[in-house]
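Inverse folding, one chain.
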């Protein structure tokens, strides 16, 4: 007979996970992930910003961008200088940032303009934990809701390349990267 939770998962911090496992399977799940139980992850809420002043800690933004700068400037050898130039660019240009509280994921989207008919993912940085905890899917859902047409470029060496192919309507391989397109959704 099922028992009630004494503490409801909604009262736990968003980064918490709860596993519901039968006692006879507990020994299998302590050090492995065999899937014997039910795992509930709340995850972090996706937040949005349209100006650098909306971020409480710019150093976290800079650190996240430094960890992965695939779409900032592929020819750069000085990552910190590239990130500094990108932040200066964002000070004077419109953008929307999607991120979680822990900065396990950060996406910078540039809106369509006269010379670019689609919004562009200028940067998408997701930590290993972010990929494993479904943060990428949650961010993608928020990005796609606000931007029905998108383009973005990813290195063909990216370990998550398959995920990007699944999200795109079209792709073009060029100079060590893959250009992805998501068409207008009606």
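Residues assigned per position:
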């Amino acid at each position: 007979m099922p028992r009630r939770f004494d503490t409801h998962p909604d009262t736990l911090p968003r980064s918490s996970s709860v596993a519901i496992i039968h006692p006879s399977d507990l020994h299998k799940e302590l050090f492995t992930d065999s899937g014997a139980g039910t795992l509930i992850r709340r995850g972090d809420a996706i937040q949005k910003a349209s100006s650098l002043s909306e971020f409480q800690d710019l150093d976290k933004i800079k650190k996240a961008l430094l960890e992965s700068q695939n779409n900032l400037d592929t020819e750069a050898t000085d990552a910190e200088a590239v990130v500094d130039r990108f932040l200066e660019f964002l000070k004077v240009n419109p953008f929307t940032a999607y991120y979680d509280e822990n900065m396990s994921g950060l996406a910078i989207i540039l809106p369509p303009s006269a010379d670019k008919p689609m919004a562009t993912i200028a940067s998408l940085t997701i930590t290993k934990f972010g990929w494993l905890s479904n943060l990428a899917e949650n961010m993608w859902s928020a990005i796609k809701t606000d931007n029905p047409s998108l383009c973005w470029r990813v290195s063909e060496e990216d370990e998550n390349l398959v995920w990007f192919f699944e999200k795109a309507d079209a792709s073009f391989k060029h100079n060590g990267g893959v250009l992805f397109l998501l068409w207008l959704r009606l």
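The helical segments are 26-29, 58-67, 79-92, 128-132, 135-146, 161-167. The first strand starts at residue 17 and ends at 20.
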